Known about the structure:
By secondary structure, this protein is α+β, with helices and mostly antiparallel strands. It has 5 domains: 175 residues, Ribosomal Protein S5, domain 2, CATH 3.30.230; 70 residues, Orthogonal Bundle (Arc Repressor Mutant, subunit A), CATH 1.10.10; 218 residues, 2-Layer Sandwich (Ribosomal Protein S5, domain 2); 63 residues, Ribosomal Protein S8, Chain: A, domain 1, CATH 3.30.1370; 69 residues, CATH 2.40.50.140. Helix content is 31%, strand content 30%. The protein is built from 16 helices and 29 strands. The strands form 6 sheets. It has an 8-stranded antiparallel beta sheet, with helices on both faces. It has a 6-stranded mixed beta sheet with strand order 1-2-3-4-6-5. A 5-stranded mixed beta sheet has the order 11-12-13-17-16. Helix 1 runs parallel beside helix 2. The mean pLDDT is 93. Its EC number is 2.7.7.8. It holds the Pfam family KH_1. One of its GO terms (molecular function) is polyribonucleotide nucleotidyltransferase activity.
Amino acid sequence: MYKQFTMxxxxxxxxxxxxxxxxxxxxxxxxxxxxxxxxxxxTASKEPREGIDFxxxxxxxxxxxxxxxxxxGGFNKREGKASENAILTSxxxxxxxxxxxxxxxxxxxxxxxxxxxxxxxxxPELLAMLGSSIATCISDIPFDGPCATTQIGLxxxxxxxxxxxxxxxxxxxxxxxxxxxxxxxMIEAGANEIPEAKMIEAIYMAHDxxxxxxxxxxxxxxxxxxxxxxxxxxxVPAEMFEAMKKIVTPEQMEEAVFTDDKQTREKNIxxxxxxxxxxFADNEEWLAVxxxxxxxxxxxxxxxxxxxxxxxxxxxxxxxxxxLSAEVDLIxxxxxxxxxxxxxxxxxxxxxxxxxxxxxxxxxxxxNVTTKRYIxxxxxxxxxxxxxxxxxxxxxxxxxxxxLAEKALVPxxxxxxxxxxxxxxxxxxxxxxxxxxxxxTCASCMSLMAAGVxxxxxxxxxxxxxxxxxxxxxxxxxxxxxxxxxxxxDMDFKVTGTTEGITAIQMDxxxxxxxxxxxxxAIARTREARLFIMDTCMKPAIAEPRKTVGEYAxxxxxxxxxxxxxxxxxxxxxxxxxxxxxxxxxxxxxxxxGFVSVCGLDQAGMDQAMKYIKTIVNDFVEGEIYxxxxxxxxxxxxxxxxxxxxxxxxxxxxxxxxRIEHVEDVLTLGDHVKCKCMGKDKMxxxxxxxxxxx
Length: 694
C-alpha cells in the first residue's frame, strides 16, 4: 500500500514515499527533499552466513550521472566504480547504523542508496543517510533504531542547518551528526579552525534537530513498519565462558594481555587459544566459535582492567600518550618527507609538488568541485601489522583515512595565489597499532613544512577511546588509544586541529550513543594531547615551513597578461606555447583570467620562457633593444624571431655599419642578434636595426 509522509525540515519539505517502489526489498523508501530524490533500500539474507565472526553489513551509495543531466565519460558511457565521495558517504552511513544491529546477527544486510535527482539546494548525501535509517526501521530486519542525521554549515559566523551544496563547500564548517533518541552516535566534521566550544554548540544543535526527525520516523514505523523477524543467534554460550575461566583464569588472561608490545600480546593470545582448543577438542560446537570466544574473553578482561582497575594494557595512565618521535628529510630527492612515530604506530609521509595543471580532476554530482589541488592518500600494507597478503589497491578504509588527514590539513594550506602548486601527500604506514590516520595528519603536516609549503599553522591529531559501564556516568575516556583499546573499547574519537581550533573530527562508536559529558571530555582531551604533540615532538623536528621549496622540487614564476592576449601566447593549435615549452624545458599554465605560471627545474629556462611570454604580449617600443634569432634571410633583409610566433624584419641597409651586397655576408640562420626598434616605417610596419643596437 502506497503511503506518503512529509515533515518540514530546515525550511524545506522532506517527503518519504513508502510502498510506491521496490516491494520485494525488506524495506524501501523513496526520499524527496526539494528536487533531490534518493531511493534507499534495506535487504537481508534469509539465513546467517556460515563461518564468520562479524556482522556482514554492506552500505552502498550510487551516484547516477543522469541525476545531474550528464552522460558518464569514458568509452563505456556508464557509471563505473564508486567515486571517492560515494565511498566516504557510504562510510558515514555505515558508522551510525552498524552499532544498532544485534551484535550476534550474522545475516548479510545491504543498505543501498541510489541518487536519482540532485537539487543543489538539498544535498543527496543527507537524504541517503535518512533514507537508510527509514528503510531499515520499517523493514523486518532486526534494528534498534531509529537514528537520524543532520548537517550543519557555518557561513559568515552563522550556523546553517542542512546547507546547500555551495554553502557546504564554501563555508567554514562541514559537520554531520547522527543521533539516536537522546544520544549522539556519530560525528564527522571538517572545519576552518573552529574553537572547541563552538564545535560542541554545533554538534548539539544538530542533535536537537535529529530528535524531531526521529519522532517523524517513529510515526512512519508505527503506520507501515513490519514486524522484526527472528534470527539464529551466534552468541557464544555462557557455559563456554565458564569453562574457559577454569582453563585460563581471569588473572592469567590479564597477564597475557598486559604488555606494551603488540607481538608479545599476540603470541600470548595464540598460546591461550591453543590451550582452549586442546581442552575443547571433543566439542565441535564450541570449537566452531572458539575464536570469537577468546576475543570476547580478552574484551571482558581489558574492559574490566580499564574501567574498574584504571589499568591500561601497556601500563600507561588514562591520559598518557605513547612515546613520540619525529624526523624530516629521511627520503632523499623527494620534495618533502617526514616520519612520525607514536608507540608502535609509524607513518612516513612524502610530499610532491607540481604545477596547478596537475591538480586532480573530479567527476561527480557536484559541479562546484571539478578539481582538487591538495591530495592526501594513505596506504596500509599488510607488513605494517606483521601479516602477508597481496596488495589490491586501496580499500574503503584506506580511502577514508586518507580523506580524514586531507580534511585536517586543507584549512591551513596557502591559497593558489600565495603558492601556485598542486600538492600530493602520501602517507605510507610502516607500522600500525592504533590511530594511523592521526599519525598521518602529524606526518603530513611536517612533510608539507619540509617541502616549503607555507602552511598557516601546524596541525596535529590524536584519538580518544572510551570504556563504559552499566550507567551513563560510569565511563573512562582514554587518550591515545592503541589497537587493543580500539578493538575492545566503545569509541574511536579522532580530532585534528591547530592551536586555534579544530580542523577535522571523525567519531566511531560501538554503543548506542554518547552523552554530552563524554563528548565534551573527549574534545577537551584531544586538544590537550595535540598541543602536547606539537610542542614536544613536531616542533623540535621542524618548527616552521621552509622559506623555499627544495632542490628537486619544481620552481614556479608568475605573471599576469591581458586575457585578450592569451591566444597570441598559445598560438594556432598551441604552436607558440609548445615551442616555448620545448625550447625552455618548462611547463606553462594560463588561466582564463590571464594568470600565467611557468614551472621548471632550471631557472635560466624559466626566465627565458617568461621573457618570451612578455615579448609576445607587449608591443614593441621605439628605441628599445631586443634580442632574437635569425630565422629567415631574404635579398632585402633578415627576419628575426624575438619569441616563438613574434618576428620583426631588419632591412639590408640596417644590418651593418658598412654597405653590404648580401645579407648572408654578415648573418647566417640561427644567429642571435640584438636589434633596436626603429618604430614604424613608411608602410606602417615596425622596423628594426642591428647596426643601431651596437
